[in-house]
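[job 4471] stage=fold_predict status=RUNNING
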Amino acid sequence: MDEREQTIGQTKKWINDVIIGCNFCPFAAKVVKQQTIHYQVENSGTPKICLDTFLNEMIRLDGDATIETSFLIFPHSFEDFDDYLDLVALAEKLIFDKGYEGVYQVASFHPLYQFEGTSYDDAANYTNRSVFPMLHLLREESIERALENFKSPQSIPDNNINFAREKGLAYMKLLRDSCL
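[job 4471] inference complete, writing structure tokens
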């Protein structure tokens, strides 16, 4: 298995074991089962190259309706969380600048993810702590459709935080780390 396949395999394990296993995203199991996720590994740490790859993912989604969502994975870059947040801001600006606002949105995941106002060792951060820095590109239309049939979608973040805190820091860290 080459490094790209290993990175994708570890990401898939994290999605299955953490995101689906902890029900952090009640919609993830369906796209995993349907195999409608595209995984793109980008080894560059140069923001311009990474943003070009991000733009290419939006173009890929434009051209292939069979892909529901895309994960852009950075296994060797953006280790610093603040640098990663700068990339997220640039990706969101690119969505706007290229006329994709309302078409796509980006969700952010990082191994050192920390919600504003939380301590670093708050287990709640593990709802977004992934095995690698990554940008998750989602179709807004799909999100809207999924939310139509979901009772109390506004409760999802609080439910996730409560679950992670009930399980505790050691459990959440072990679960995520077991994906590597």
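[job 4471] summary: The two ends are 14 Å apart (CA to CA).
[job 4471] exit 0
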